[in-house]
Amino acid sequence: MNKTIFRSVLIACCIVMMFSLAVTLFFLNSYFIDIEFENLRAQAEFTAQAVDKVGLDYFESFSSDIYRITWIEADGDVIFDSDADEAAMENHLDRDEIREALAYGHGQDRRLSDTLSRETLYSAVRISDGSVVRLSVTQASVLRITLGVIPYMLAVLVLALVLCTFVSRRISRRIIDPLNRLDLDRPLENETYEELSPLLVRIDNQNRQIEKQIDTIRMRQKEFNAITDNMREGMIILNKADLVVSMNTSAMKLFGGSPSVIGKNILVLDRSVELMNALSEVEEKGRSEYNFERNGFVNRLIANRIRDDNDKVLGTCILIVDETEKVLAEGMRKEFSANVSHELKTPLHSILASSELLINNLVKEGDKMTFIERIHSEAEHLLTLIEDIIRLSQLDETKEFPREEVAFREIVDSVVDALGKSAADRSVTMTSDVEDVRILGVRRLVYEIAFNLADNAIRYNREGGHVDIGVHETGDGIVLAVRDDGIGIPKEHQARIFERFYRVDTSHSRSTGGTGLGLSIVKHAAMVMNAAVALDSSEGGGSTFSVTFPLSSRC
After folding, report:
1. Exposed e or buried b for every residue in 122-145, given b needs 16+ CB within 10 A?
2. What is the pLDDT of residue 510?
3. Nearest Cα residue to 121 out of 58, 65, 39
4. How would you write 443-493 as a 3-class SS string?
5. What is the reported pLDDT for 516?
6. Nearest residue to 106 (alpha-carbon basis) of 129, 124, 120
7. Burial of 496 (0-12, 13-18, 19+ CB in 10 A)
């Protein structure tokens, strides 16, 4: 802009200067011609007076290198001419200055020569006898004068150009400096040209609008970051060149990335063949998904093209969903189905085999009761198994259970009575130490927790062992604990004992008649009432199962 203003001012100065020189030259030429005409007229009048008095004798003594004198009769014939032979000269009656002098007593004219390089000024005066005396002087024409002063004009032009350059630079700097000092962040606080006020007001309004838009964008960005950073799923947004535009916390943890990856290619995070194939498939089909395992977790990557309203590709959105639980649940479901089938087949096969022997009279009369008792025992085991399976299904499917006041002392007493015979059959002594604590919960589920824990403590105890049931309120909550001094649980099995049909010792479980679902029922029932289950056990050193109910459930 500074160069533009400088050139504009310089050109304007040069044009003005050239125009001024031309106008000055024109007016000076007119001024000097007028002066020359005045002088020439004065000389002509003086000469006419002398000729009128002396006559032709005056010309004998006339000598001049400047002026040319001509005496013309009233009919236009030349009487005398100081520079030419009057006899050879043509009639001068058609000359303008002669006609004016004959008519008005004085006339003047100027005429250019054929070369246009010189011009002649004429002044004619009529004398008393009617003849005309004319004086003329020849001088350089305007063109010739102009050509003569060109060297001086060039010198003046050079000096003027230097001056114009200096002035133009100063002017442009004075114009630009206030503009360069403008504070566009606070346009209304500037002291500058009044003509810029509308522009500054408009800039101020635009700044306010931009600030509002930036604030809105920042707020939306914060909301977007807050939403994505709290997602369990990983999310990565790429532009159409596969550069990372956004990446939430879950994705960074999964791929081991950091905020520095923003703006870099996605392959910086993961160069796996599966990801490269997925990006190629997204480019071709607009969508791709596949499963991959990382850090012991099974994840599903779903990639989709992002398009605008005009179907123009803007980038790619990658969503990584943790499907570990789903895969494990699917595996557990398959395992559960296989286990259910196996667990149901075992007593059914025993019942079928025993009944076939009885039907075909292949059993001695004295042994029939043994087979009948076996059929009854297996049927009871099958019924218990079915009931446990149904109970687990109810716990899985039912979201809400009716709550009521539950007294732990009543629950524990009922469990001790129900399992008294079973404990006596295995020579196990049962004791209880229960505080009078009540909670708002599901009575049936609390009973099943206490019953299954105590039943397991009896089943997996040694002969002559002890089982103690205690309920106490602590700072952490209300704790229901079942302790035994039985066979205990090895460390490597403790993480899986709450799985359905999982058994530490299959042969021992068969002999005790357990279904393998008791601890699963305990876990699910505790989850329904927001309770936590814990285990403290060692092989051969007994086990302690504790269920902690939150203090908020206390009545």
Report:
1. bbbbbbeeebbbbbbbeeebbeee
2. 46
3. 39
4. HHHHHHHHHHHHHHHHHCCCCCCEEEEEEEECCCCEEEEEEECCCCCCHHH
5. 65
6. 124
7. exposed
CB-CB contact of 281 with 288 (8 Å): yes
With both helix axes pointing from N to C terminus, report the angle between 324-359 and 368-397 in degrees, rounded to the nearest 10.
160
Bridge partners of residue 404, in order along the sequence: 441
CA-to-CA distance for 97 and 40, rounded, in angstroms?
Answer: 13
DSSP code of residue 515: -
DSSP string for residues in 92-127? -TT-HHHHHHHHHSEEEEEEE-TTSSEEEEEEEEE-
Residue 149: per-residue pLDDT: 63
CA–CA distance, 184 with 189 (Å, rounded to integer): 9
Q: How far is CA 423 from CA 253, 364, 457, 459, in A?
A: 52, 34, 10, 8
Provide the pLDDT for residue 120.
Answer: 85
pLDDT along the chain (555 residues), means of 10: 64 75 74 81 86 80 79 88 83 88 89 66 89 84 59 75 76 72 73 72 84 87 78 86 87 82 86 87 88 83 88 88 75 61 67 80 79 77 67 63 88 89 90 91 87 89 91 91 90 76 53 63 85 89 92 83
Lookup: tokens for 88: 């050879």
pLDDT at 116: 46
The pLDDT value recorded for residue 514 is: 54
The β-bridge relationship of strands 429-434 and 466-473 is parallel
Tell me if 487 sits within 8 A of 451, measured CB to CB: no
Question: Under 8 Å CB-to-CB from 495, ≥6 apart: which residues?
Answer: none
Task: Give the other-Cβ count within 10 Å of 258's Cβ.
Answer: 9
Contact assessment for residue 446 and residue 471, using Cβ atoms and an 8 Å cutoff: no
Q: Please give the C-alpha separations between residue 123 and each of 45, 50, 91, 114, in angstroms, as whole numbers.
A: 9, 16, 17, 20
Q: Does residue 190 contact residue 184 with C-beta atoms inside 8 Å?
A: no
Is pTM beyond 0.85? Reply is: no
CA angle 483, 485, 490 (to 5 degrees): 95
Q: Which two tokens stand for residue 405?
A: 């006041």
What tokens does 245 get? 């535009």
